[in-house]
Amino acid sequence: MEANIELRLLDYKLKIISIKKPSIHKLMFAIVKIAFTSKTKCSFFSFTETNDDYSIVVDHYGFQELKPFTNDDDIILSNSDWIPMHLSGEDLQRGISKIAKYLIIPLADCKISIMAISMYQCDYILIKEEDYETVIECLSGHIPKIYDESQEPELVFAKQNGKAHYNFKKVHRSENRLVRKHSLSDECRQRKITLPLLIPDSIEYCITGLYNMDAFFLIIPTLISIMFYETEEYENNEIFFNFTKKEFDISLVLETRLLKKFPHGILLNIENDYWKLIRIGQLPVGFEVFGVVASISQPLEIGNIDEYYISSYDTGYCFIPSEDLNLAKQLFAQKDAKFVATNKTCFVEVKVDSLMNGTDSEEEINNLNSQENFIETQFPDQIESCENGNRILDKSLNELDTIKNNVV
After folding, report:
1. CA 122-220-368 angle, 5° bins
2. Per-residue confidence at 201, pLDDT binned at 50, 70, 90?
3. How many Cα atoms within 13 Å fall on the side-chain side of residue 230?
4. What is the pLDDT of residue 3?
């Protein structure tokens, strides 16, 4: 019986950006505006902090708002635009491992590299724009209907009475399509896990959203604290934090120890739904490598283990329920996986110190002044209502004064 599912390619062209750790202060104003206010046209924004960098996935509008605050020395920008897509269906379960056989594994068989961003309510797979047609042809053998929200009519593939019907309008056919199509003969092969898996043994994570979007403003000061100041409190440990906003959907992945910083009753499902992080690889992987997500998701699908997956600019991060970690290790070991118990690095720098040494121009001082004015005027009620808010604002103002005095 054919699965009652459909694939939707969303009407976004996303940019993927890596920001160097000491440079994050230059983008603080733009990030706060995009992430927390209505004064932006951006409707897809994902912010991830790791030991290596800050990774931002953002739509065209958000990229234009970030661009004035950056230069080539601060960021690395992916060459391609990326299109997000997601599966939907009556019987479809949440989690990357649950959609692996429809999306992840077929794309790996077609040698197509992907990125993944799991949110609390939905999993998004990102593909390069130049792979658009290859992706549709590849997935047409697994998904009965494929829609593209950027074109009219939206239906670009349908299987009716055993016959395939395509309706491409936006991309020319490429020679790569034929090469990749021939590679499908190995579709059912079992992949080995070739990259080492790093698991911080002592850290648990929570994947959550908001009960009510009306409460979003109540947690903004806490989010600012975590995104821009929290690193100095755990600089020798594995670092991972993700904030993703798509239109009115909010998703957070954070260490459980940070939950106490949030007002009670605002975050979803945080009592005992805890997860373990698995970092895939010790060194940057890059966008040209394919099959990494598939190699992790395939054994988890076999073991019926839930999985979230978030790609940073350089690295993949998998999250599985804490109680399933031992079973997952056994499944990974069957695929020749090698494990590293913990991962401590010396990459992390306290952001304030880097500010003190890095500000040397009138333009940067003006940017910092804009941040001060923006935070004061945009969130006065929320800052007063949150105990944590005044501490953050005072700290920001003191840093700005110190920086200006040192430069003058």
Report:
1. 120
2. confident
3. 23
4. 66
Element (H, E) at 339: strand 339-340
pLDDT score for 284:
80
The 3-state secondary structure of 269-307 reads: CCCCCEEEEEEECCCCCCCCCCCHHHHHHHHHHHCCCCC
Describe the crossing of helices 220-228 and 28-36 by its angle, rounded to 10 degrees.
150
DSSP code of 74?
T
What is Dmax (Cα atoms) for the chain? 75
Q: d(Cα 191, Cα 105) in Å, to the nearest integer?
A: 10
Element (H, E) at 95: none
- Long-range contacts of the stretch 29-32 (C-beta < 8 A, 24+): 29/69, 29/367, 29/370, 29/371, 29/374, 30/65, 30/66, 30/68, 30/69, 31/56, 31/66, 31/227, 32/224, 32/371, 32/374, 32/375, 32/378
Q: How many angstroms separate the CA atoms of 102 and 65, rounded?
A: 36
pLDDT digits (tens, 9 = 90+) for 40-50: 999 999 999 99
CB 120 within 8 A of CB 37: no
Interacting residues of 49 by C-beta distance below 8 A, sequence separation 6+: 227, 231, 239, 240, 241, 242
Highest mean pLDDT out of 81-85, 137-141, 158-162, 210-214:
81-85
* CA–CA dist 332, 316 (Å, integer): 16
Instruction: Please state, in angstroms and as integers, the Cα–Cα distance from residue 407 to each residue in 159, 362, 400, 403, following that order.
Output: 66, 9, 11, 6
Nearest to 139 by CA among 295, 304, 307, 9: 9
Tokens for 116, please give them: 């993944």
In this predicted structure, what is the pLDDT of residue 283? 81
For 96, residues 6+ apart whose C-beta sits below 8 A from its C-beta are 104, 116, 118, 123, 293, 297, 300, 307, 308, 309, 318
Which of 367, 380, 371 is closest to 407 using CA atoms? 367
Residue 356 DSSP SS3 = helix
Measured distance CA(102)–CA(7) in Å, rounded: 10
Geometric angle at alpha carbon 202, from 198 and 203, rounded to 5°: 80
State the sign of the Cα–Cα–Cα–Cα dihedral 275, 222, 64, 398: negative
